[in-house]
Write a structure and sequence with these properties.
6-stranded mixed β-sheet, L,D-transpeptidase catalytic domain-like, Immunoglobulin-like, 39% strand, elongated
Length: 400
């Protein structure tokens, strides 16, 4: 009966490569030694080789990307398979129940060289190499908020893509959000104000202060679909939720209030957009996008002709369409009594400075009242808080 003699080293023969129908075959690369008296062996203790082979579903230098790597063993059981790219990054995978094959969990990325090493249960090993064709087009993205930043309780995680994303479900499955307190949330797709494809992750309710959020975007090897190109790298980012605070703007009563931990800590008079036309303010729940300080505001950039051209202090952006909260000393006669601005929420220098110093990017601004031209659009900044939870979930490409 055939057996391996103790302490007899494994005899390996070099791998031989032959490309057949897109498969790399490694013959006689995995070998085992037989003891004397075995079938095919010599009576004098000489050994004989047991030949086997593996195949890899991708071969050559122009292999097709976008699918998993599969390694199949002709005989016996696989013990371990390692697939690494030229940068040393590995593809995780799993061996089938019968031990005959291994399949990667991730897809082969375009324009990448890979090395394969397979080991069988008898200690033999074999190697193979292949490379995927370069991508015709590469898709990239922009992430908000910034890495390692601290943001307010209303800040969504937002991704804007350079090129269209047709394979939205496949992309969304590759975006993993992890939170320190298992926050419930969902992705939602839209067209960004810039016209580009965008997907945001919003919690069901405002974030809890102190929550740590991590994004692992395992996109390398994912095809965006027609016109979008390939993703050729993974992305990671993390941020932390800061103080529990929000701003409430009452358009009809001309007041702006800052609340922290549910308690009102500041109430200031203000004057918002002139009602009855394009100069009116937006209402709804928005999010402070950025603190821009002193900036030049020109009316023609928001479609209001040559109505104004001013340097404006303590500017806090609320929408892409140009709605801000800021200092507006020229409107002092209307603070607390009337809305007479060109769409922004104006305050005195002192009040605007105080609010500016207290708010965080990502703080919700809850704007209410009839003196408005409508509710802020979903993509005009971060308007997702104006949707119910079920409405927001319906915007996921994975929503059933």
């Amino acid at each position: 009966m055939s057996r391996i003699r103790p302490r007899t080293p494994l005899r390996r023969s070099p791998a031989r490569f032959a490309a057949t129908a897109g498969v790399v075959v490694l013959s006689a690369a995995l070998t085992a030694c037989s003891g004397g008296g075995a079938e095919g062996g010599s009576a004098g203790g000489g050994g004989s080789k047991k030949q086997t082979s593996i195949s890899v579903n991708l071969s050559g230098k122009q292999a097709k990307a976008g699918g998993p790597v599969k390694v199949t063993l002709a005989d016996g059981r696989l013990k371990e398979v390692t697939v690494t790219d030229s940068k040393g990054a590995g593809l995780d995978g799993s061996i089938s129940a019968d031990g005959r094959s291994w399949t990667s969990a991730r897809k082969a990325a375009p324009g990448t060289s890979y090395s394969v090493e397979a080991k069988d249960a008898d200690g033999g090993s074999a190697t193979a190499d292949f490379a995927t064709a370069a991508p015709d087009k590469v898709n990239k993205l922009t992430l908000v908020p910034g890495k390692n930043s601290t943001v307010g309780i209303g800040q969504p995680l937002s991704i804007v893509f350079d090129h269209p994303v047709k394979n939205r479900a496949e992309v969304e499955k590759s975006l993993k959000v992890t939170t320190s307190d298992k926050t419930e949330g969902s992705w939602g797709w839209m067209q960004d104000w810039s016209g580009k494809d965008r997907v945001d992750w919003r919690p069901k309710e405002y974030w809890k202060p102190g929550t740590k959020v991590t994004l692992d975007a395992g996109l390398n090897g994912i095809d965006s679909g027609s016109g979008g190109g390939w993703f050729v790298r993974d992305y990671t980012s993390s941020f932390t939720i800061g103080r529990n605070q929000l701003v409430r703007v009452d358009l009809d009563n001309h007041r702006l209030k800052l609340l922290r931990d549910g308690a009102e800590i500041k109430d200031v008079p203000m004057s918002a957009g002139t009602p009855g036309g394009e100069k009116a303010s937006w209402r709804g729940r928005t999010v402070l996008m950025s603190k821009e300080g002193t900036i030049n505001m020109r009316s023609e950039t928001v479609g209001l002709g040559d109505a104004y051209d001013k340097m404006v202090d303590y500017s806090m952006r609320l929408t892409w369409s140009g709605m801000y909260a800021h200092a507006a000393p020229w409107n002092a006669g209307y603070f607390g009594t009337a809305n007479k601005s060109s769409g922004c929420v104006g305050m005195s220098d002192a009040d605007a400075q105080w609010i500016y110093e207290q708010v965080q990017v990502g703080d919700p601004f809850e704007i209410s009242g009839g003196d408005a031209k409508g509710t802020q659009a979903l993509n005009n900044g971060y308007g997702e808080w104006n949707l119910s939870w079920s409405q927001w979930q319906a915007k996921s490409a994975l929503h059933s």
